[in-house]
């Protein structure tokens, strides 16, 4: 857990003490007063978000504007896909049963084959490359499944499949960190095969080399994303991408997705409103955070990005990057909630 999101963890430890103390004080006073559990700050933020909801979202530099009605479709409008949280969780179990998936390991090769076998029938590209990491040279492979839509433009759903290299001599399997997003993305792939996108194309990107090999720095992290963002910037693909939605650690039973200040603000607004429309706002954006992850190289080449991540995994994020990151800490309900909000986000993006 010290090898990733280092800036974030520093920020977390600084920012978390006060909210925890505040929560304890509020809980204590609520108990004393015998009143309900809703705190004044939560009520205030609900009022603020109701006020924000009336405003259109204007992505700077883009010919798009989201209005309130884009988030208020007729009740008959179905979400784009009905994704099964149970099947996503089943995929997680099967995937982590392959063992650790750190770079160069037999489990890593098995993970690639597992993903490819589950993507059979979809147009798949492999972006294989060799890279010098802080721990030596490694072969890496970004796997991309492209589901063509009817509109000109692409929405990316991405997440990494490797496990943390510094934990290679432990039983660490990254059930939530790597396993949960792969499980969900493979379930989405299953759905997309049966129900191709009617709007923008959807590409599922399984990134490699997200984890640091020694210690998290800009140089020693997100190797696969850096490689692909460079390539997409050079060949013009980057300009076709309407949104890059990153899924990371979305299996946590106790789901709380942070509002990441490194993500694109208007895209976070679209996601936040999608969550509100589905009544899932209690799981989204209660807390601000600043997160380093696979989205940064794509943001750097001008792609609108959002990191959908729950980095409060166990008390004080205790389970991240430890052997306690096991399937029993995850649920089928959490990927289900995330999938519904992502599908609703895609529906809203397709109105523009
Ligand atoms: Zn990790």
Describe the structure.
With 352 residues, the protein is an alpha/beta fold. It has one domain (5-349): Zn peptidases (Aminopeptidase). Helices cover 39% and strands 18% of the residues. It is built from nine helices and eight strands. It has helices at residues 6-33, 40-53, 85-96, 106-118, 175-194, 223-235, 265-277, 295-300, 333-349; strands spanning 124-133, 136-147, 151-160, 200-207, 241-248, 257-260, 284-289, 305-309. The strands form two sheets. Strands 1-2-4-3-5-8 form a six-stranded mixed sheet, with helices on both faces. A two-stranded parallel sheet has the order 6-7. Strand 1 (124-133) and strand 2 form a beta hairpin. The radius of gyration is 20 Å and the shape is globular. The chain binds zinc ion (ZN).
Q: Nutshell version of this structure?
A:
The protein is α/β, with parallel strands linked by helices and 352 residues long. It has helices spanning 6-33, 40-53, 85-96, 106-118, 175-194, 223-235, 265-277, 295-300, 333-349; strands spanning 124-133, 136-147, 151-160, 200-207, 241-248, 257-260, 284-289, 305-309. 39% of the residues lie in helices and 18% in strands.
């Amino acid at each position: 857990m010290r090898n990733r999101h280092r800036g974030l963890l520093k920020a977390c430890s600084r920012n978390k003490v006060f909210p925890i103390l505040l929560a304890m004080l509020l809980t204590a006073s609520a108990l004393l007063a015998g009143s309900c559990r809703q705190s004044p700050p939560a009520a205030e933020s609900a009022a603020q978000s109701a006020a924000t909801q009336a405003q259109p979202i204007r992505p700077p530099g883009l010919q798009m504007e989201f209005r309130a009605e884009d988030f208020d479709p007729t009740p008959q409008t179905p979400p784009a896909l009905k994704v099964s949280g149970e099947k996503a969780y089943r995929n997680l179990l099967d995937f982590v049963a392959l063992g650790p998936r750190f770079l160069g390991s037999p489990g890593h090769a098995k993970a690639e084959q597992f993903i490819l076998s589950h993507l059979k029938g979809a147009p798949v590209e492999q972006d294989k490359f060799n890279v010098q990491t802080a721990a030596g040279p490694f072969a890496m492979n970004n796997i991309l499944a492209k589901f063509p839509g009817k509109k000109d433009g692409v929405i990316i759903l991405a997440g990494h499949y490797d496990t943390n290299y510094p934990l290679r001599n432990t039983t660490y399997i990254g059930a939530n960190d790597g396993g949960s997003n792969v499980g969900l993305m493979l379930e989405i792939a299953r759905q997309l095969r049966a129900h191709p996108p009617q709007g923008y194309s959807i590409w599922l990107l399984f990134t490699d080399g997200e984890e640091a090999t020694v210690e998290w720095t800009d140089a020693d992290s997100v190797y696969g994303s850096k490689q692909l963002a460079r390539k997409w910037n050079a060949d013009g693909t980057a300009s076709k991408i309407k949104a890059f939605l990153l899924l990371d650690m979305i299996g946590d039973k106790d789901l709380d997705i942070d509002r990441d200040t490194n993500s694109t603000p208007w895209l976070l607004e679209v996601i936040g409103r999608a969550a509100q429309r589905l009544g899932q706002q209690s799981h989204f954006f209660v807390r601000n955070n600043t997160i380093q992850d696979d989205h940064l190289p794509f943001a750097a080449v001008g792609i609108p990005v959002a990191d959908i991540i729950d980095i409060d995994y166990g008390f004080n994020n205790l389970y991240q990057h430890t052997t306690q990151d096991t399937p029993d800490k995850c649920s089928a309900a959490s990927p289900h909630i995330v999938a519904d909000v992502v599908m609703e986000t895609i529906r809203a993006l397709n109105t523009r």
